[in-house]
Protein backbone atom coordinates (compact mmCIF):
# COMPACT_ATOMS: atom_id res chain seq x y z
CA UNK A 1 0.00 0.00 0.00
CA UNK A 2 1.34 3.46 -0.77
CA UNK A 3 1.22 6.37 1.66
CA UNK A 4 -2.22 7.88 1.61
CA UNK A 5 -2.33 11.41 0.31
CA UNK A 6 -4.83 13.43 2.27
CA UNK A 7 -7.61 15.39 0.71
CA UNK A 8 -7.69 18.98 1.82
CA UNK A 9 -11.15 20.42 2.40
CA UNK A 10 -11.35 23.90 3.88
CA UNK A 11 -8.35 23.35 6.12
CA UNK A 12 -9.24 19.89 7.40
CA UNK A 13 -7.78 16.62 6.29
CA UNK A 14 -9.60 13.42 5.54
CA UNK A 15 -7.53 10.25 5.49
CA UNK A 16 -8.51 6.62 5.65
CA UNK A 17 -5.59 5.33 7.72
CA UNK A 18 -3.73 6.63 10.72
CA UNK A 19 -0.39 7.86 9.35
CA UNK A 20 2.65 8.44 11.52
CA UNK A 21 3.04 12.04 10.36
CA UNK A 22 0.03 14.26 9.78
CA UNK A 23 0.61 17.86 8.71
CA UNK A 24 -2.55 19.96 8.47
CA UNK A 25 -2.87 23.46 7.13
CA UNK A 26 0.67 24.35 8.20
CA UNK A 27 1.77 27.97 7.90
CA UNK A 28 5.05 29.53 8.97
CA UNK A 29 5.50 33.28 8.99
CA UNK A 30 8.59 35.36 9.77
CA UNK A 31 8.33 39.02 10.71
CA UNK A 32 10.96 41.04 8.81
CA UNK A 33 11.71 44.78 8.71
CA UNK A 34 10.01 44.85 5.27
CA UNK A 35 6.89 43.05 6.47
CA UNK A 36 5.83 39.49 7.21
CA UNK A 37 7.23 36.69 5.05
CA UNK A 38 4.83 33.76 4.80
CA UNK A 39 7.33 31.06 3.86
CA UNK A 40 4.82 28.22 4.22
CA UNK A 41 1.15 28.73 3.49
CA UNK A 42 -1.55 26.15 4.32
CA UNK A 43 0.41 22.98 3.55
CA UNK A 44 -1.10 19.56 4.37
CA UNK A 45 0.30 16.08 3.88
CA UNK A 46 0.43 12.67 5.56
CA UNK A 47 3.09 9.98 5.74
CA UNK A 48 2.97 6.39 6.95
CA UNK A 49 5.81 4.36 8.47
CA UNK A 50 7.91 2.61 5.85
CA UNK A 51 6.94 5.16 3.19
CA UNK A 52 8.79 8.05 1.57
CA UNK A 53 7.39 11.44 0.72
CA UNK A 54 9.36 13.60 -1.68
CA UNK A 55 9.03 17.36 -1.35
CA UNK A 56 10.17 19.12 -4.48
CA UNK A 57 10.36 22.70 -5.68
CA UNK A 58 12.84 25.39 -6.62
CA UNK A 59 15.00 27.08 -4.04
CA UNK A 60 12.96 29.28 -1.70
CA UNK A 61 9.67 27.40 -2.10
CA UNK A 62 9.38 26.57 1.60
CA UNK A 63 10.66 22.98 1.62
CA UNK A 64 13.15 23.46 4.45
CA UNK A 65 11.02 25.83 6.50
CA UNK A 66 8.05 23.44 6.44
CA UNK A 67 10.23 20.48 7.41
CA UNK A 68 12.02 22.34 10.18
CA UNK A 69 8.58 22.94 11.70
CA UNK A 70 8.18 19.15 12.01
CA UNK A 71 11.24 19.16 14.27
CA UNK A 72 10.02 22.22 16.17
CA UNK A 73 13.10 24.15 15.04
CA UNK A 74 11.42 27.55 14.61
CA UNK A 75 12.05 30.00 17.44
CA UNK A 76 8.60 31.18 18.62
CA UNK A 77 10.06 34.65 19.21
CA UNK A 78 11.12 34.96 15.59
CA UNK A 79 8.33 33.14 13.78
CA UNK A 80 4.67 32.16 13.90
CA UNK A 81 3.81 28.53 13.22
CA UNK A 82 0.11 27.78 12.72
CA UNK A 83 -1.84 24.65 11.86
CA UNK A 84 -1.20 21.17 13.17
CA UNK A 85 1.69 18.70 12.98
CA UNK A 86 1.13 15.34 14.63
CA UNK A 87 4.03 12.91 14.98
CA UNK A 88 2.95 9.50 16.22
CA UNK A 89 -0.24 11.15 17.46
CA UNK A 90 1.57 13.93 19.38
CA UNK A 91 0.91 17.55 18.49
CA UNK A 92 4.16 19.41 17.77
CA UNK A 93 2.83 22.89 17.07
CA UNK A 94 3.09 24.84 20.31
CA UNK A 95 4.95 22.06 22.13
CA UNK A 96 7.43 23.40 24.71
CA UNK A 97 11.15 22.95 24.06
CA UNK A 98 11.86 20.20 26.64
CA UNK A 99 9.21 17.93 25.08
CA UNK A 100 10.45 18.79 21.63
CA UNK A 101 14.02 17.97 22.60
CA UNK A 102 12.91 14.54 23.71
CA UNK A 103 11.29 13.91 20.34
CA UNK A 104 14.11 15.35 18.26
CA UNK A 105 16.87 12.88 17.47
CA UNK A 106 14.85 10.14 19.11
CA UNK A 107 11.58 9.82 17.20
CA UNK A 108 12.37 12.39 14.52
CA UNK A 109 15.75 13.15 13.00
CA UNK A 110 16.94 15.40 10.20
CA UNK A 111 19.93 15.21 7.91
CA UNK A 112 21.08 18.20 5.93
CA UNK A 113 22.91 19.02 2.74
CA UNK A 114 25.97 20.25 4.54
CA UNK A 115 27.46 17.57 6.78
CA UNK A 116 30.44 19.77 7.54
CA UNK A 117 28.14 22.30 9.20
CA UNK A 118 26.21 19.58 11.07
CA UNK A 119 29.31 17.93 12.53
CA UNK A 120 31.37 19.88 15.04
CA UNK A 121 34.89 20.34 13.60
CA UNK A 122 36.72 20.02 16.96
CA UNK A 123 35.16 16.76 18.15
CA UNK A 124 35.89 13.27 16.91
CA UNK A 125 33.15 11.77 14.73
CA UNK A 126 32.61 8.85 17.12
CA UNK A 127 32.34 11.13 20.15
CA UNK A 128 29.62 13.13 18.41
CA UNK A 129 27.70 9.98 17.52
CA UNK A 130 28.07 8.61 21.04
CA UNK A 131 26.84 11.93 22.47
CA UNK A 132 23.75 11.81 20.22
CA UNK A 133 23.08 8.31 21.57
CA UNK A 134 23.64 9.19 25.24
CA UNK A 135 21.24 12.16 25.11
CA UNK A 136 18.39 9.71 24.56
CA UNK A 137 19.89 6.77 26.48
CA UNK A 138 21.03 8.35 29.74
CA UNK A 139 21.44 4.95 31.39
CA UNK A 140 23.84 3.65 28.74
CA UNK A 141 27.57 3.57 29.54
CA UNK A 142 30.13 5.47 27.50
CA UNK A 143 31.42 2.16 26.28
CA UNK A 144 27.95 1.13 25.05
CA UNK A 145 27.61 4.46 23.28
CA UNK A 146 30.99 4.05 21.57
CA UNK A 147 30.08 0.52 20.53
CA UNK A 148 26.81 1.83 19.10
CA UNK A 149 28.71 4.60 17.25
CA UNK A 150 31.04 2.04 15.64
CA UNK A 151 28.09 -0.17 14.75
CA UNK A 152 26.32 2.74 13.03
CA UNK A 153 29.47 3.83 11.14
CA UNK A 154 29.77 0.25 9.94
CA UNK A 155 26.09 0.19 9.02
CA UNK A 156 26.45 3.26 6.78
CA UNK A 157 29.47 1.79 5.04
CA UNK A 158 32.46 3.56 6.64
CA UNK A 159 35.45 1.24 6.16
CA UNK A 160 37.35 0.15 9.32
CA UNK A 161 34.82 1.83 11.59
CA UNK A 162 36.60 0.89 14.82
CA UNK A 163 39.59 2.95 13.65
CA UNK A 164 37.75 5.76 11.83
CA UNK A 165 35.51 6.34 14.86
CA UNK A 166 38.34 8.46 16.34
CA UNK A 167 38.82 10.62 13.22
CA UNK A 168 37.86 14.27 13.14
CA UNK A 169 35.27 15.33 10.51
CA UNK A 170 37.92 16.92 8.26
CA UNK A 171 39.66 13.53 7.99
CA UNK A 172 36.54 12.13 6.29
CA UNK A 173 35.76 12.67 2.58
CA UNK A 174 32.55 14.52 1.68
CA UNK A 175 30.70 11.26 1.05
CA UNK A 176 31.93 9.77 4.31
CA UNK A 177 30.86 12.84 6.27
CA UNK A 178 27.40 12.54 4.73
CA UNK A 179 27.32 8.88 5.79
CA UNK A 180 28.43 9.86 9.28
CA UNK A 181 25.61 12.39 9.49
CA UNK A 182 23.13 9.72 8.39
CA UNK A 183 24.57 7.46 11.09
CA UNK A 184 24.05 10.23 13.63
CA UNK A 185 20.48 10.78 12.41
CA UNK A 186 19.66 7.10 12.73
CA UNK A 187 21.57 6.24 15.90
CA UNK A 188 18.41 6.29 18.03
CA UNK A 189 16.22 4.46 15.47
CA UNK A 190 13.95 7.43 14.72
CA UNK A 191 10.57 6.59 13.22
CA UNK A 192 10.72 9.66 11.01
CA UNK A 193 13.77 10.84 9.10
CA UNK A 194 13.80 14.12 7.21
CA UNK A 195 16.56 14.32 4.63
CA UNK A 196 16.95 17.89 3.37
CA UNK A 197 18.81 17.83 0.04
CA UNK A 198 21.07 15.13 1.49
CA UNK A 199 23.12 14.61 -1.65
CA UNK A 200 23.14 18.00 -3.38
CA UNK A 201 26.76 18.75 -2.51
CA UNK A 202 28.07 15.34 -3.61
CA UNK A 203 29.22 14.00 -6.97
CA UNK A 204 26.85 11.78 -8.90
CA UNK A 205 28.38 8.41 -7.93
CA UNK A 206 28.47 9.19 -4.21
CA UNK A 207 24.97 10.66 -4.50
CA UNK A 208 23.65 7.37 -5.86
CA UNK A 209 25.40 5.42 -3.08
CA UNK A 210 23.93 7.66 -0.37
CA UNK A 211 20.41 7.36 -1.82
CA UNK A 212 20.77 3.56 -1.96
CA UNK A 213 21.95 3.60 1.63
CA UNK A 214 18.95 5.67 2.72
CA UNK A 215 16.60 3.23 1.01
CA UNK A 216 18.29 0.21 2.61
CA UNK A 217 18.15 1.77 6.06
CA UNK A 218 14.54 2.75 5.60
CA UNK A 219 13.60 -0.82 4.70
CA UNK A 220 15.54 -2.11 7.68
CA UNK A 221 14.09 0.33 10.23
CA UNK A 222 10.65 0.75 8.59
CA UNK A 223 10.94 4.48 9.15
CA UNK A 224 8.93 7.20 7.48
CA UNK A 225 11.20 9.35 5.32
CA UNK A 226 10.68 12.85 3.96
CA UNK A 227 13.20 13.58 1.24
CA UNK A 228 13.56 17.19 0.16
CA UNK A 229 15.10 17.85 -3.21
CA UNK A 230 14.89 20.05 -6.28
CA UNK A 231 15.65 16.98 -8.39
CA UNK A 232 12.72 14.99 -9.77
CA UNK A 233 15.16 12.21 -10.67
CA UNK A 234 15.73 11.63 -6.96
CA UNK A 235 11.96 11.64 -6.42
CA UNK A 236 11.42 9.04 -9.15
CA UNK A 237 13.97 6.81 -7.45
CA UNK A 238 12.94 7.22 -3.83
CA UNK A 239 9.46 8.54 -3.19
CA UNK A 240 6.06 6.86 -2.86
CA UNK A 241 4.30 10.22 -2.86
CA UNK A 242 5.34 13.67 -4.07
CA UNK A 243 4.43 17.11 -2.81
CA UNK A 244 5.34 19.92 -5.19
CA UNK A 245 5.78 23.29 -3.50
CA UNK A 246 5.80 26.74 -5.06
CA UNK A 247 6.04 30.05 -3.19
CA UNK A 248 5.17 28.41 0.13
CA UNK A 249 2.14 26.46 -1.09
CA UNK A 250 1.46 22.91 -2.17
CA UNK A 251 0.67 23.10 -5.89
CA UNK A 252 0.49 19.38 -6.69
CA UNK A 253 0.35 16.28 -4.50
CA UNK A 254 -0.13 12.60 -5.19
CA UNK A 255 1.43 9.18 -5.72
CA UNK A 256 4.79 9.40 -7.49
CA UNK A 257 3.82 7.20 -10.43
CA UNK A 258 0.72 9.26 -11.11
CA UNK A 259 2.61 12.51 -10.72
CA UNK A 260 5.40 11.52 -13.10
CA UNK A 261 3.15 10.03 -15.76
CA UNK A 262 0.23 12.45 -15.50
CA UNK A 263 1.61 15.65 -13.97
CA UNK A 264 -1.33 18.02 -13.79
CA UNK A 265 -0.13 21.61 -13.60
CA UNK A 266 2.33 23.86 -15.42
CA UNK A 267 4.83 24.30 -12.60
CA UNK A 268 5.32 20.54 -12.26
CA UNK A 269 5.64 20.35 -16.06
CA UNK A 270 8.37 22.96 -15.81
CA UNK A 271 10.23 20.93 -13.18
CA UNK A 272 9.92 17.79 -15.31
CA UNK A 273 11.13 19.62 -18.40
CA UNK A 274 14.34 20.53 -16.65
CA UNK A 275 15.05 16.87 -15.70
CA UNK A 276 14.78 14.96 -18.98
CA UNK A 277 16.20 11.68 -17.65
CA UNK A 278 13.09 11.20 -15.48
CA UNK A 279 11.34 10.28 -18.72
CA UNK A 280 14.32 8.16 -19.82
CA UNK A 281 14.11 9.78 -23.22
CA UNK A 282 17.27 10.41 -25.21
CA UNK A 283 15.67 13.04 -27.44
CA UNK A 284 14.35 14.98 -24.48
CA UNK A 285 15.18 18.66 -24.29
CA UNK A 286 16.23 20.43 -21.18
CA UNK A 287 13.98 23.45 -20.85
CA UNK A 288 14.48 25.62 -17.78
CA UNK A 289 11.47 27.42 -16.31
CA UNK A 290 11.76 31.08 -17.36
CA UNK A 291 11.97 33.77 -14.70
CA UNK A 292 12.26 33.44 -10.94
CA UNK A 293 9.95 32.56 -8.05
CA UNK A 294 8.07 35.59 -6.68
CA UNK A 295 9.08 37.58 -3.62
CA UNK A 296 7.21 36.25 -0.61
CA UNK A 297 6.99 39.81 0.71
CA UNK A 298 4.87 40.84 -2.23
CA UNK A 299 3.51 37.73 -3.96
CA UNK A 300 1.50 38.28 -7.15
CA UNK A 301 -2.29 38.16 -6.85
CA UNK A 302 -4.04 35.09 -8.25
CA UNK A 303 -1.96 32.00 -8.98
CA UNK A 304 1.59 32.57 -7.65
CA UNK A 305 3.01 30.93 -10.76
CA UNK A 306 1.10 33.15 -13.23
CA UNK A 307 3.95 35.54 -14.14
CA UNK A 308 6.00 32.54 -15.38
CA UNK A 309 3.22 30.35 -16.74
CA UNK A 310 3.05 29.64 -20.48
CA UNK A 311 -0.50 28.26 -20.23
CA UNK A 312 -2.44 30.99 -18.45
CA UNK A 313 -4.00 32.17 -21.72
CA UNK A 314 -5.86 28.83 -21.85
CA UNK A 315 -7.82 29.82 -18.76
CA UNK A 316 -10.86 31.99 -19.49
CA UNK A 317 -10.88 35.62 -18.39
CA UNK A 318 -8.25 36.92 -16.04
CA UNK A 319 -8.69 34.12 -13.51
CA UNK A 320 -4.99 33.19 -13.26
CA UNK A 321 -4.06 36.78 -12.42
CA UNK A 322 -6.91 37.44 -10.02
CA UNK A 323 -7.90 34.24 -8.23
CA UNK A 324 -5.76 31.79 -6.28
CA UNK A 325 -6.68 28.27 -7.43
CA UNK A 326 -7.59 25.81 -4.67
CA UNK A 327 -5.73 22.54 -4.21
CA UNK A 328 -8.35 20.11 -5.53
CA UNK A 329 -8.59 16.47 -6.67
CA UNK A 330 -8.03 15.95 -10.40
CA UNK A 331 -11.35 14.15 -10.55
CA UNK A 332 -13.96 13.35 -7.94
CA UNK A 333 -12.45 10.97 -5.38
CA UNK A 334 -8.91 11.19 -6.81
CA UNK A 335 -5.99 11.42 -4.36
CA UNK A 336 -4.00 13.33 -6.94
CA UNK A 337 -4.40 17.03 -6.11
CA UNK A 338 -3.50 20.10 -8.16
CA UNK A 339 -3.69 23.83 -7.70
CA UNK A 340 -4.43 25.19 -11.17
CA UNK A 341 -7.37 26.66 -13.10
CA UNK A 342 -6.74 24.65 -16.30
CA UNK A 343 -9.89 22.65 -17.03
CA UNK A 344 -8.21 19.79 -18.92
CA UNK A 345 -4.53 19.67 -17.94
CA UNK A 346 -4.14 16.13 -19.32
CA UNK A 347 -4.99 17.31 -22.84
CA UNK A 348 -2.51 20.20 -22.63
CA UNK A 349 0.18 17.91 -21.25
CA UNK A 350 -0.27 15.30 -23.98
CA UNK A 351 -0.53 17.74 -26.89
CA UNK A 352 1.94 20.46 -25.90
CA UNK A 353 4.24 19.45 -23.07
CA UNK A 354 5.14 15.81 -23.77
CA UNK A 355 6.13 16.44 -27.42
CA UNK A 356 8.61 19.05 -26.16
CA UNK A 357 10.16 17.13 -23.30
CA UNK A 358 9.80 13.49 -24.37
CA UNK A 359 9.18 13.05 -28.11
CA UNK A 360 9.90 9.29 -27.85
CA UNK A 361 7.02 8.79 -25.49
CA UNK A 362 4.63 10.59 -27.80
CA UNK A 363 5.61 8.43 -30.81
CA UNK A 364 5.15 5.29 -28.74
CA UNK A 365 1.71 6.37 -27.61
N1 LIG B 1 14.27 33.22 9.36
C1 LIG B 1 13.73 33.66 8.23
N2 LIG B 1 13.31 34.93 8.11
C2 LIG B 1 12.77 35.41 6.97
N3 LIG B 1 12.58 34.66 5.86
C3 LIG B 1 12.99 33.38 5.92
C4 LIG B 1 13.60 32.82 7.08
N4 LIG B 1 13.89 31.51 6.82
C5 LIG B 1 13.49 31.30 5.55
N5 LIG B 1 12.96 32.41 5.00
C6 LIG B 1 12.40 32.54 3.66
O1 LIG B 1 11.44 31.53 3.47
C7 LIG B 1 11.42 31.08 2.14
C8 LIG B 1 11.45 29.57 2.09
O2 LIG B 1 12.72 29.13 2.50
P1 LIG B 1 13.16 27.61 2.50
O3 LIG B 1 12.12 26.78 3.15
O4 LIG B 1 14.51 27.58 3.10
O5 LIG B 1 13.23 27.28 0.97
P2 LIG B 1 13.68 25.91 0.26
O6 LIG B 1 12.48 25.44 -0.48
O7 LIG B 1 14.78 26.31 -0.67
O8 LIG B 1 14.13 24.96 1.33
C9 LIG B 1 12.60 31.75 1.45
O9 LIG B 1 12.11 32.82 0.67
C10 LIG B 1 13.44 32.26 2.58
O10 LIG B 1 14.11 33.43 2.23
S1 LIG C 1 -3.61 28.60 -12.50
FE1 LIG C 1 -3.13 29.60 -14.45
S2 LIG C 1 -1.16 30.61 -14.09
FE2 LIG C 1 -1.42 29.11 -12.45
S3 LIG C 1 -0.39 27.30 -13.19
FE3 LIG C 1 -2.55 27.08 -13.77
S4 LIG C 1 -2.67 27.93 -15.84
FE4 LIG C 1 -0.72 28.60 -14.97
MG1 LIG D 1 16.06 24.19 1.65
From TrEMBL:
Cellular compartment(s): Cell membrane
Entry keyword set: ATP-binding, Cell membrane, Membrane, Nucleotide-binding, Transport
Source species taxonomy: Bacteria, Bacillati, Actinomycetota, Actinomycetes, Propionibacteriales
This protein's record includes keyword Cell membrane: yes
Coiled coil location: none
UniProt cross-references to SUPFAM superfamilies, sorted A to Z: P-loop containing nucleoside triphosphate hydrolases
GO biological process: peptide transport
InterPro entries: AAA+_ATPase, ABC_Ni/Peptide_Import, ABC_transporter-like_ATP-bd, ABC_transporter-like_CS, Oligopep_ABC_C, P-loop_NTPase
Gene Ontology molecular function, alphabetical: ATP binding; ATP hydrolysis activity
Origin superkingdom: Bacteria
Annotated family: Belongs to the ABC transporter superfamily.
The keyword Transport belongs to this UniProt entry's keyword annotation: yes
Protein's organism: Nocardioides lianchengensis
Signal sequence bounds: none
Bilayer disposition of the protein: Peripheral membrane protein
Name this protein carries in UniProt: Peptide/nickel transport system ATP-binding protein
A Pfam family annotated for this UniProt entry: ABC_tran
GO cellular component term of the entry, any: plasma membrane
Amino acid sequence: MTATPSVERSGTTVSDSDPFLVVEDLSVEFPTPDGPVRAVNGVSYTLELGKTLGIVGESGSGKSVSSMAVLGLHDPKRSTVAGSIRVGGQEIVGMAEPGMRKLRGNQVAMIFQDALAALHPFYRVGAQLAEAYLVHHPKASKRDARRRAIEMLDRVGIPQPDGRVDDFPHQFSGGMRQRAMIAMGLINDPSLLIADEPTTALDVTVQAQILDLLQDLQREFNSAVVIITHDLGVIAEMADDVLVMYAGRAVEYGATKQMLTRPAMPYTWGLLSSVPDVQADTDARLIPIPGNPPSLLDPPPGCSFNPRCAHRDKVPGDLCRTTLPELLPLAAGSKHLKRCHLADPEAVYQSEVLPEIAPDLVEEA
